[in-house]
Specification:
Helix 4 packs across helix 5 (about 130-135). The longest helix is centred in the C-terminal third of the chain and has 14 residues, at about 305-320. The chain has three domains: about 15-80, RNA-binding S4 domain (Structural Genomics Hypothetical 15.5 Kd Protein In mrcA-pckA Intergenic Region, Chain A, Roll), CATH 3.10.290; about 90-165, Pseudouridine synthase, CATH 3.30.2350.10; about 175-320, 2-Layer Sandwich (Pseudouridine synthase), CATH 3.30.2350. Helices cover about 25% and strands about 25% of the residues. The protein has helices spanning about 25-35, 40-45, 80, 90-100, 130-135, 160-175, 250-255, 270-275, 305-320, and strands at about 15, 50-55, 70, 100-105, 105-110, 145, 155-160, 180-185, 195, 200-205, 210-215, 225-230, 235-240, 285-295, 295-300.
């Protein structure tokens, strides 16, 4: 691949995608080549049409194909942005190592801790992907396959090879990766389950905060809920994602009248306050399992509820049973 290596080129450059880039999202492609650029900047230059694929306008979410010519505009970054990401401290490195659920030559799957972003940006200097690249420096092609919200814990898949990334993205597009979450919601479910198909519209506020609303103008979305356990004032649900929209489970749960406990964005403050008093200090949403065809069979990975959520669940059950 031929390109100007300067971090602040004087003019736009044309970069040709190679076979190893095929299947990668355009925003990720740009992040790898504009070292230190925040994602907000990447989205802005794409939205303004400053980035072009084969001469045409494009979206940050579109997939790059081998042979594509990508126009990258001149981008000036401050000294802090151009600097290498901060070194991973020993405690976080140990935490990430302990979180690994499965690893082979192509995949790395971990139980992402709540409170840890999957990538840096928007004031976050170091996320899961930056940390794992430091822990696994030999994995030159390590990439996130999908994302989890910062406050959501559980199964997170990373690809160690571009070929694996392409295959996994194909599985996601064909809805052949079964994702199941556990969520503790406020309120009581009379039925054993429900299917929510409310369309979701994503908005970005001036502050950069993402807010998703139910809207007929939004993208189609589907979540299948099943009751796992009933408490007098709360319900533990399994949520199976059929689509993967931003904040989908959180917004669908709130739309059904039972928001997830600990959800500061879409939940009810009175319910969240009571849950905090009983020890719930985070969003009660956990990516509990993944299942998909891989190699010669089915790969199934589970991440049971962590001690923090187990304790909060026990406290809520004891309190509401009195």
């Amino acid at each position: 691949m031929s390109e100007n290596p300067s971090p602040t080129p004087a003019k736009a450059r044309q970069v040709r995608a190679e076979a190893g880039d095929a299947g990668q999202r355009l925003d990720n492609f740009l992040l790898r080549r504009l070292k230190g650029a925040p994602k907000s900047l990447i989205y802005r230059i794409v939205r303004r049409g400053e980035v072009r694929v084969n001469g045409g306008r494009c979206k940050a979410s579109q997939r790059v194909a081998a042979g594509d010519w990508i126009r990258i505009p001149p981008v000036r970054l401050g000294a802090a942005a151009q600097a290498a990401p901060p070194r991973l401290d020993a405690a976080l490195a140990e935490r990430l190592e302990a979180a690994v659920l499965h690893e082979d030559k192509q995949l790395l799957i971990l139980d992402k801790p709540s409170g840890l972003a999957v990538h840096g940006g928007s004031g976050i200097s170091l996320g899961v992907i930056e940390g794992l690249r430091q822990i696994r420096p030999e994995c030159k092609e390590l990439e996130l396959v999908h994302r989890l919200d910062r406050d959501t814990s559980g199964c997170l898949v990373l690809a160690k090879r571009r070929s694996a990334l392409r295959r996994l993205h194909e599985l996601i597009r064909d809805n052949r990766i079964e994702k199941r979450y556990q969520a503790l919601v406020s309120g009581v479910w009379a039925k054993n389950g429900a299917v929510c198909k409310a369309s979701l519209l994503k908005n970005t506020l001036q502050s950069g905060e993402r807010v998703v609303r139910v809207s007929p103008a939004g993208k189609s979305a589907e979540t299948r809920f099943r009751v796992l356990r009933r408490l007098p004032a709360a319900t533990l649900l399994e949520a199976r994602l059929i689509t993967g929209r931003t904040h989908q489970i959180r917004v669908h749960a709130a739309h059904l009248g039972t928001p997830i406990l600990g959800d500061a964005k879409y939940g009810r403050e009175a319910d969240n306050r009571r849950a905090r008093e009983l020890g719930l200090r985070r969003l009660f949403l956990h990516a509990e399992s993944l299942r998909f065809a891989w190699e010669d069979g089915m790969l199934e990975i589970r991440a049971p509820l962590g001690p923090e959520l187990q304790r909060a669940l026990a406290a809520l059950a004891e309190e509401t049973s009195e």
